[in-house]
Design goal:
It is a single chain. It contains 13 helices and 16 strands. The protein is of the alpha+beta class. The strands form 4 sheets. Strands 3-2-8-9-10-11-1-12 form an 8-stranded mixed beta sheet, with helices on both faces. A 4-stranded antiparallel beta sheet has the order 7-6-14-13.
Length: about 375
């Protein structure tokens, strides 16, 4: 295992060798790429598929692509998608049986597909890496282990990227999840893009033995003290750009003490209960399971689908839904994310990526709603 920092400098000219090395070791590379709908995480075939020369602008309820005058590769924040799109797909066939004579032949698609898929995630931000670790707690903690997720996660290679820019919706620093990848996190490689008028290089930190193997095929040179200082300056600049914060001190207790506060109704008058916030959230994990058979009775299958707690049917039991009002459904989402999550998993369910703010059609801001309850508590001790 890696016991101390191993830092190398890779020039822009040689950066493609990293991609080639991942392919050589049999990985399917998933990375950010420029699409008509924005920067998205998709399978890529070369480094030229990365969003070179593109950035983004994000505000509450607003996302816009920006064309740069520079050829920077990672000068954006987070995509509307998250890496759970691949580790925990929105639709997954779990099991299928087909009638063969007088018996049924079953296939476990979970284990079959997981054994044959090796992902390399290229461009994982530190807030997103924290989100993956939270999903790990959900899906790989005994006794309730998701076999597909666990199998796929074991083989997934993580190439993290330190942020070189922050946007209006970022608040990772106050959640202690970014913008720099800390050495304690389980990554294979961590990249800091160094760009100015005189250079375009990548400082790469090795975080695992398999990361060292990948870098063995990449032309590189040991990082100098000046290179390391340049990388630290990139992160420092990013931190200075983060204006949004969330004070997480006693948030759990605060929300639990205000379950009947009239402010939930105020939020409900703005909330469309569309579920966008949960669908883009990198830690939300709710799902439903549906069973199907064909009309001839020869085939049966079980499908798992992503679900959201804003759906009226989500809390349906015999006799009706438990949470019938928009206020109760938003309260369920926020209190689960910032309070009940601690009871279940011992941590917050929010990593400060800001996706729920950007992709809310009406611009509801989770940090502002928490601040309201905090201010209300100060005025009514």
């Amino acid at each position: 295992m890696v016991n101390q920092k191993e830092l190398y400098l890779v020039s822009r000219k040689n950066f493609a060798a990293l991609f080639d090395s991942l392919c050589f070791y049999g990985y399917t590379v998933i990375g950010p790429t420029h699409t008509p709908s924005g920067i998205a995480y998709e399978p890529i075939e070369s480094v030229e598929d990365l969003p070179i020369g593109w950035s983004d602008e994000q505000f509450a309820g607003s996302y816009r692509l920006i064309k740069l005058d520079t050829p920077q590769v990672f000068h954006y924040v987070v995509s509307q998608h998250s890496w759970k799109t691949f580790l925990n797909p929105a639709v997954r066939q779990l099991w299928k049986a087909e009638k063969k004579g007088k018996s049924f032949e079953t296939r476990n698609r979970v284990s079959e597909e997981a054994r044959h898929q090796k992902y390399a995630f290229l461009g994982v931000r530190t807030c997103e890496l924290h989100a993956i670790l939270i999903q790990d707690k959900v899906y790989t903690t005994a006794p309730f282990i998701d076999p597909y997720y666990a199998e796929l996660r074991k083989t997934t290679f993580i190439v993290a990227v330190n942020c070189s820019v922050a946007r209006n919706t970022c608040f990772c620093s106050s959640m202690h999840t970014g913008p720099k990848v800390s050495a304690e996190l389980p990554f294979d490689l961590a990249i800091t893009e160094l760009f100015d008028t005189t250079r375009h290089d990548f400082l790469i930190e090795i975080g695992s033995d398999r990361g060292r193997d990948i870098m063995g095929r990449v032309p590189k040179q040991p990082a100098t003290t000046a290179d390391i200082q340049s990388a630290e300056s990139v992160v420092a600049t990013t931190i200075s750009q983060i204006s949004k914060t969330m004070n997480i001190t006693n948030v759990k207790q605060l929300l639990e003490q205000n379950l009947d506060h009239p402010h939930w109704q105020d939020i409900a008058r703005r909330c469309l209960t569309c579920g966008n916030c949960t669908m883009v959230c990198p830690t939300c994990f709710c799902s439903t399971v549906e069973d199907y058979t064909d009309l001839l009775g020869t085939t049966a299958e079980r499908i798992r689908k992503q679900d959201v707690c804003f759906n009226l049917d989500f809390s349906y039991i015999h006799g009706g839904s438990i949470r019938t009002s928009p206020a109760s459904r938003y309260r369920q989402w926020l209190t689960h994310k910032l309070a009940r999550w601690f009871d279940q998993f011992g941590c917050s369910g929010c990593v400060g990526c800001g996706r729920c703010i950007t992709w809310c059609p009406v611009g509801i801001d989770i940090t502002e709603e928490v601040r309201f309850f905090q201010d209300a508590g100060k005025n009514n001790p």
